[in-house]
What does this fold into?
Amino acid sequence: MPSKSGLLTTMGYKIGSEAPVYCLEGSIAITGALVQWFRDQLGIIRTADEIESLAASVEDNGGAYIVPAFSGLFAPYWRSDARGVITGLTRYVTKAHLARAVLEATSWQTREVVDAMYQDSGVQITTLKVDGGMTKNNLLMQHQADVLDVPVIRPKVSETTCLGAAYAAGLATGVWNDLDELKAHWAKDAEWTPAMTADVRDREYHNWRKAVEKSFGWQEDGES
It folds into this structure.
């Protein structure tokens, strides 16, 4: 299904002689790389894991938002002229507030992709299953549940892409008989439920969208 909301139509999988299954994909350029930038370029933390405790030392982002458009914005905007911005700075803001803004940038970018998927499909999300290295960050997972207003579920095997490739190979070689057998292997490791009120969620999302608009138009034609 071609997207009208800034997403990509991508191949999901094809098993044997069955028809291929396609997906709507929301590509985001910078998520975990923003934590690396916070560590390596700014030197505020020594290891990526330290960002969770630093961010958890404050109750909110202090009004600061970081839009990591280091090489433009991908889905759902596709703005090559955008560049990274930090907005809402006051003397009140500390490195802990910025750490929280770093994590929240992933949640808000995901929220925008989920909204675009709803616009394309008309299917309302009920849960979000997550995978990858950033899912080890419990504070991020809670914020993701808060901004989507749905439960976030982390499986016991968090490297889902690698696991899927192994499952596909196993199906092809007869290690497993069918998809139902594979489904029995899935197990939940942790779950986070929304704890943010609707008015706070709407206000924060509104502020995020304002910050995104500030990132537009920094790259002029002909500039490198």
Observations:
- The chain is about 40% helix and 10% strand.
